[in-house]
Amino acid sequence: MKRILSTVLVILSCLYTSLANATLTTNSALGEVKIDGFLSVGTAWSDVNFLASGVEPVYISNIRKKPSFEEDSNVGVQITKQIHEDVSITVQFLAEADNQWEVETAWAFLKWEPGDHWQLRAGRVRTNPYMLSDYVNVGYAYPWVRPPEEVYSMIPAIYSNSTGADVRYRHALWNRDLTITGFYGVVSTELTFPIGPSQSIFDDVRLRLRDLYSFNLRYGDEVFSIRAGIEITRVTFDPNAGTVMGELNDFLNELVSFGLISPDYINYFSLYNKRTSFMGLGYQFDWNNIVSMGELVKRKSTSPIEATAIGWYLMGGYRVKQLLPHITFARERLVDNNVRRFNNIINQDFMAFTGSPIPLDQVAQSLIATSEYYNGGAGAQSSVTLGLRWDVIDGVALKAEYKHVHPDLMSPGLFDFNPLKSVNIYSLALDAVM
Amino acid sequence: MRTRLLKTKILTAIAFTVVPLISAAELVVIANRELPVTSLTREELYRIYMGKTNFLPNGVKVIPVDQKVGSPSRDKFYSSVIQKSDTEVKSYWSRVIFTGQGYPPIQESDDQAVKDLVSKNPNCMGYVDKSYADSGSVKIVYTVQ
To answer: Do residues A288 and A274 lie in contact, with contact meaning Cβ atoms separated by under 8 Å?
Structure first.
């Protein structure tokens, strides 16, 4: 944290010096330092009931019965300097409430744009598995408080912060733009997992995405556009000794060594170069005050701790002056859930050896569902959202949303525990850009 | 005789006050005299002002000059040429800026400032009320209907 802050200070002071020296030639805007920012303050709460066991199901890790600001509050500052006629440097710092407002570098790239057609970027660049990935942190840029989580929770935004290079080719075709983007890079990030039986201490485990390829195609204009994207990568993830996942690995390895179960279960909760892919289709429509958007995505996983899943949403709205009332239908379902793949032998051995009152199935299910970045065992749900966006003044929008979430039978949906009934989520947000 | 004179005077007065008002409502897009272009289409203006291109159809670099929110010329330009509200435009640019794809055109406060900038910079163009488009320093490349 200290190191990040001092880095920010050093960069800011450098920029300040260059700003002071900059001669503002409006002709080419060369040497001009541009500083832009965005801010979202959002709160959300649910009307969930406590379960008989006294557990309160929590929605997407942050939304509880008591209003909290964690899910939808953030602030970002972006600094761009043109260092040559067609070369620029952009750095974007982002601090999110659900990350204790720690400052991270969301973007940091050098861009070369030799003409209208080609653009090359290298550095910390965000890949875009989703239609709104590029600006998913900028609440002002879309109608909702947060984009539909049935689609947008499949790959957490943190996975998109990659280091690599991308090439964009843009060509005007029948008066509309055809944009093709290709990216190659890697992601290295830390996931948080509980340690020990009480699960109240957390451990950071490194997750790596190697050989991350991403291709995106977009065609259209501001009235209507369609996009298709694909992302392919190899995932490596090895839980540290002492974490619940690490201990479950040890337990299963032991059963294998006794010859009780097949060697398939060795390091069951680890991933070594596991191929994962993600595909998405989407459209945007905005004409004569009618606004509509939709996306369909598929996450394909070959790992036992993450399910293959499909998600989609369909949104429609009608702009009345500064107001945009809208409605969204969304659904996420599991195509193939390997997570609960333990047979009776394993479940009984698990209970006998560890003294656990619940079978491994359920432990794995709750563990993977509660882990902030895994929803392998969860996810099947439908929802309807009614929302209103009000553009109060230039650059400031107020939003209110009511969301009715209906988890599938036997699935916790995007809750950490099955709430056993439908739940309403209420959200309010203030989004600004400056 | 007297009434006739009065009538003529009134008519002249009306003519002098109303005619400039009519022409004042006419908005034109001007370019520096050295910019190698004689006319632009609405689609070309849209692409230039929305940052989709930095070049004229003939490949010459162009720098569009915008006006600040609230100026009457801006209101007219955005409603007739770009056909988007201030809110939509702001939202559009927030998507472009925060993905590192580009920046909106430079903004000046009024017609006079735009004209001054355009007349001094060979690659510049901008929109102003027709009364500011004197043929000495700038040329008209589009007339807003």
So the answer is: no
Closest Cβ opposite residue A116 in set B53, B99, B124: B53
What order of strands is seen across the sheet that includes strand B138-143?
B106-108, B63-67, B124-129, B27-32, B138-143
A109 part of contact set with chain B, CB < 8 Å: yes
Which residues in B84-108 are b (16+ Cβ under 10 Å) and which e?
A: bbbbbbbbbbbbbbbbbbbbbbbeb
User: How far apart, in Å, are the Cα atoms of B38 and each of B41, B57, B63, B75, B137?
Assistant: 11, 11, 16, 25, 14
ipTM of the predicted structure?
Answer: 0.76
Query: Are the C-beta atoms of A178 and A195 separated by less than 8 Å?
Result: no
> Does residue A258 sit in helix, strand or coil?
coil
CB–CB contact A121 B100 (8 Å): yes
Token code pair at residue A293: 């958007």
**pLDDT (tens place) for every residue of chain A, 434 residues total:** 444 444 444 444 444 444 443 333 333 455 688 999 999 999 999 999 888 878 888 888 889 999 999 889 999 999 999 888 889 999 999 999 988 898 989 899 999 998 889 999 999 988 888 999 888 899 999 999 999 999 998 887 677 778 999 999 999 888 889 999 999 999 888 877 666 555 567 777 788 888 999 999 999 988 999 999 999 999 888 887 777 778 888 888 888 888 878 888 888 888 888 888 999 999 999 998 999 999 999 988 777 677 788 999 999 999 998 999 999 999 998 887 655 567 777 888 888 887 778 777 777 766 665 454 455 556 789 999 999 999 999 899 999 999 999 998 777 888 877 888 899 999 999 999 98
Cross-strand pairs, A287: A290
Q: Is A395 on the interface with B (CB under 8 A)?
A: yes
Global pTM? 0.82
Q: Does A375 touch chain B (CB under 8 A)?
A: no
